[in-house]
Structure prediction request, 602 residues.
Amino acid sequence: MTDFLLALQALAGLAAGAVLHLFGIDGPAHAVWAVSTAVILVPLTLTVTRSLLRRDVGVDAIALVAIATALVLGEYLAGAVVALMLAGGNALEEYASGRARRELRTLVERAPRTALRRRDDTVEEVPVDAVRPGDVVVVRAGELVPVDGHVLGHEAVVDEAAITGEPLPRTIAAGEPVRSGVANAADAFEVRAARPAAESTYAALVRLMREAEAQRAPFERLADRYAAVFLPVTLVVASVAWAASGDPVRALAVLVVATPCPLILAAPIALVAGVSRAAHAGIVVKGAAAIEKLGEARTALLDKTGTLTVGVPELEAVAVLDGHGESELLRLAASVDRLSAHPLAEALVRAAAARGLDTAFPVDVEEAFGRGVEGRVDGRRVAVGSASWLAERGYGDGSVPEVAGHARVLVGVDGALAGMILLADHLRADAADAVAALREAGIEHVALVTGDKAAVGEEIGRVLGVDRVYAEQTPAEKLEVVRAAQARPELRPVLMAGDGVNDAPALALADVGVALGTAGATIASEAADAVIVVDRIDRLAEAVRIGRRSMKIARQSVLAGLGLSLAAMVVAAFGYLPPVFGALLQEGIDVAVILNALRALR
Prediction:
């Protein structure tokens, strides 16, 4: 707001002096222009002094020299025009930055602050932080879901556009997870909270957005270095023009056209606009520095499970060994697995529910987590687990063969091996085009980095068309893969994409880490530089494209603006551009490059 007030003051002073000059009242006109210029000079002097104390020389220093020189030489009209140019450019930059950050601000400001908690037949409005895991929350039509949880009762229709950029509503069945921050697009529904609001997806996104607003890109610091070189060049040209002509006004004209204060700000505007554009596409980028690295990345290292695959095992086949029907075998296995928290057990329960099988509640359940579970179902003794564990308990001899690329679950009934259930983690629907999309976005080398077996990794790598596969990698070995790529100049900067805790170290070490998935509050998300909140791998290429375009526009703005300013300085040095017209020309250059920077929003 201060910049706008200073711009209004400068405009009013320039206009008032012009009116007085038209009526031939030159003395007061010059006084008004001088006062108007001095008002701008005071805060500018403080700003430049603070910058110099930080050893940060920017083009504001050129503006300070130009305005002070105009006052000393009695070129009050030129000083007033430069002052208006400076204040107006800063005001325009403030407006442009505000527009570029609108997506970020909107996301933060719309965070749910209250929730309707239901207890028995009573519904009460409570602060969202008061909701605890297990609480039932009512979400009315048009309201935001305040916490992560699962839909209760009947299906829900939600609008995820504000978070993911998806324009169409999505239907979520009863029992399925729903994220905080999405809007109810139909009838009221209930959600059972899975975690506190402070740990929810939306709260994590808000934290990431605030980080994004606070960070400063290396390109912005590079622009400051441009300014540090530009200042002495300007002073040399101005001095030569003065010495050659004997006219100090020529030096002033050079200083005036070399005052592109908003120009260097065009770079951060373009990068922040890229952050905003990414947010609209469901990609939370932690600041302009990450946008810059995305735009420069040459190598993409991709995790497999949960990144290129759905990350959730799904039923592939049921093989019966002793005469049980497939449905009955699956029903018995899912029944005993109802009390297990193992991911494969949950997959069997989901598969049985999807087939409409009526599972029973097991009794006398014993579980060796990670190996198997045994219990009694409808009076029958049922065991589900690995071949070795079932063999230890008298179900077969453990000689069942492995099936490449599948998780194998054996089922025993009443002391005999009854069958085998195969589960697999399938590729995402959009994974087939992911590698090609990355190449089109400018990535030159794509590699698969997975902890899975070599045969599985090589097969997926072949299907996707990656350049190299690193299989059976531990978290520590993934770090070595990242380091090896960074050590080769033709492969860096390196982008790493993953979703799990085991990927977090590699995400943190990579030049730019991207976490995929919808958890939002995972360690991977905290370690990454960007988080794709919509469950789609194709947004990874979109993030790279946004980074490339933002960087291209930032460079265009800075180089074009500096080039035009240098050309104008030469013209001014030869006396063909008076200070007043030089100031107007420079204002036009500044406005043009800032408007160009805003193209990154599209």
Notes: The longest strand covers residues 416-424.
